[in-house]
Amino acid sequence: MATICDRAQIIMEWMQDWQLPPAVVDRLHRQARADRWAVSVASFTAALERSARKAFATQPDPRELERHLTSLHLEDLALACACANGHEAAWEHFVREHRPVLYKAADAIDPTGGSRELADSLYGELFGLVERKGERRSLFEYFHGRSSLSTWLRAVLAQRHVDRVRSTRRFEPLPAEDAVNVAQPPERQPRAAGYVQLMQRTVTAAVARLAPKDRLRLGFYYSQDLTLAQIGRALGEHEATVSRNLARARREIRADVERQLRDDAHMNPSQIDECFAAVVEDVGPLDIADLLGTGGPRKGSEEKRSKERAEGASA
Amino acid sequence: MPERNRDESVEHVLRRVLSQEVRESPQGACLDGETLAAWTEGSLRADEAAVVERHVADCGRCRSLMAAFIQTTPPAPAVESVWHRWRLGWVVPLATAATAAALWIALPGNNAMPVSVPSIQEVNTAPVGQTSRDAAPPAAPSTSPESFTRSSAPQERVAVNAGNELRKRANQSAARLEELSDERAAADAALLQRVEADKRESAPSAASPSPARADAATAGAATAGAAPRPLTSARQANLPLEIVAPGGAARWRITNGQRVEWSTAGATDWSPATITSSDTLTGGSASSASVCWVVGQRGAVYVTTDGTRFVRLPFPEMADLVSVIAIDDRSAMVSAADGRSWRTADQGLTWSMR
Q1: Residues A130, A136: Cα–Cα separation, whole Å
Q2: How far apart are CA A142 and CA A130, in angstroms?
Q3: Rounded distance, CA B223 to CA A78, Å?
Q4: How far is A26 from chain B (nearest CA, A)?
Q5: What residues of chain B lie within 8 A of the CB of A104, using their CB?
Q6: CA B346 to CA A67: how far, in whole Å?
Q7: 3-state secondary structure B212-262
Q8: Which positions in chain B touch A63 (Cβ < 8 Å)?
Q9: pLDDT digit of tens for each residue in chain A (315 aa)?
């Protein structure tokens, strides 16, 4: 308890003592061209302080702080400040420059137009329709300039989309018993089923031993069904590099699984062969989303990914 | 069982295991919009980025978030190497031939003199501040061709004829460049300017070099030897600027004035580096295979110490920076378009004007 109190005390003191050097603020204010939108130095200072508090858990070294502030997208931060303050010209500029980006992103997430509604509701929040304690609060106050405004908007839109999909899934009924039973082949042998379970355990353990970035690539590729190019864009790698790293991770997993089966499960080579074969023969549980054709981007990207795999193999 | 079949088995299980994992989120704070945006733009500090990577690797919700976000990311435009553009295909042999002819004309008695051929690096460092429309017309050689026609040596007459023919072709090329109104023409014009500058330099009577040439010479002298070579201003952003680390172990290139790509595979396999700049990037310099400095308009100074993630550094003025000389990961000297230059020895925390 004392520790929590101490920590709260430190944070409170830090927040009270928090003061940005006026010379730095003036320079950043000029650099941001905040005058265009009539953003006062005080308002801009408050935005800079919010950004710094979000970035640092404890009071940083002044030089580190200056480096952080200088690295911000200052012009976007000034625009966000102005929009949050209700500056009409700034809002018009924002709508003109960023509305098409947001709608394009919404269409990319859901080509059927389902995300347009999210984009529109986002506009409402940005404009500040939501009131808390009698004050108009704009979503712009959560923009701290660490990325460009357009990237932030796309990220917030993606966040809303994922949260909506997940909340919808919570209310979906579970698949019927019959459907689950269909997933189990009647002629499946208990021994093969045991091999499949063993393989799943060993692969899970092998994946857990990989570096986070390798796990991330595998997750994007096998769970999210992203293409190599998309993964490359996310991780700042060329798609050929992604392909090579995925192949290496798969090799490491296979070697790890073979070692586990040999050393931990004490299997002989023919039993290990049976394990690997059992996995391919096992059809596994049916994916209801696939059956109903609601698998989303997975189906669409599968063809492209097969092509990528073939190209990777030929290379 | 063949290895290939085992690989397929592993893929089969991976697909199932990783999909199941999505339904089980680990404990801990999930990504918010700002953190996700900053991470994808490479703006997070290294410690923050490591935490995010660890979390996203095991969190189904955040991986789904990333996947949705990636779908909104427009694909990067395909960048065509400037040397593969058909319009420049004829410039390289022409530049080589023109330089050779100029040397031949200027030094008739020295037939064995090695011919300097502008390399890709040299061409990239050429000033490209002028467009094709305001580019100076090709300057006539200071030594008039008539003085050579008086010569009795047949081989010199042949050389003069060849030189005239090449000049004629160069003038035709310049005229053709005038007709090109797109941005690529600017790059071509810069190249021709360089060729003409080389010709002027090699002419014996060219005693007073032009200011532009003097700048180039200064820059060359400053970076002679093992020191990294700075790239001068390239406001015509469509001409990719290539930055080569000492020894050629790594390369970076600035495309469209805003994107930076890097390669460790001899300029064959380019990966996008993480840099976010709303200002036009105009120059760069590398001091090692992992340290590269990039500068741009409005006091933009970036540095990477791992080759891929560029971090913006504080700079005291909103000056339009045009070149940088990287000394190491902490020290560099930058120059502005108005001639001022600054130096830092602490990675941008302090700058001293020189």
Answers
A1: 6
A2: 14
A3: 40
A4: 11
A5: 72, 74
A6: 12
A7: HHHHHHHHHHHCCCCCCCCCCCCCCCCCCEEEECHHHCCEEEEECCCEEEE
A8: 349
A9: 444 445 555 545 555 566 788 888 899 999 999 999 999 999 999 999 889 888 887 878 888 888 889 889 999 999 999 998 889 899 999 989 888 888 888 888 888 877 788 888 888 888 776 555 666 678 888 899 999 999 999 999 998 888 888 777 665 555 544 444 444 444 456 677 888 888 888 998 999 899 988 998 998 898 888 889 888 888 888 888 899 999 999 999 999 999 999 998 888 888 888 888 888 776 555 444 443 433 444 444 555 555 555 454 444
**Residue among B8, B38, B71 whose CB faces A108 most closely:** B71
CA of A184 vs chain B CAs: smallest distance (Å) = 15
φ, ψ at B353 (rounded to 5°)? -80, 140
Chain A residues closer than 8 Å to B69 by CB? 154-155, 158, 234
Check CB contact under 8 Å for B18 and A63.
Answer: no
Give me the interface pTM, i.e. the ipTM: 0.74
Dist CA A8 CA B168 (whole Å): 80
Exposure b/e, A224-239, CB count within 10 A at least 16 = b = bbbbbbbbbbbbbbbb
> Which H helix or E strand runs over B343?
strand B341-344
What is the per-residue burial (b if ≥16 Cβ within 10 Å, else e) of B193-205? bbbbbbbbbbbee
CB A249 within 8 A of CB A231: no
Enter the pTM of the model: 0.53
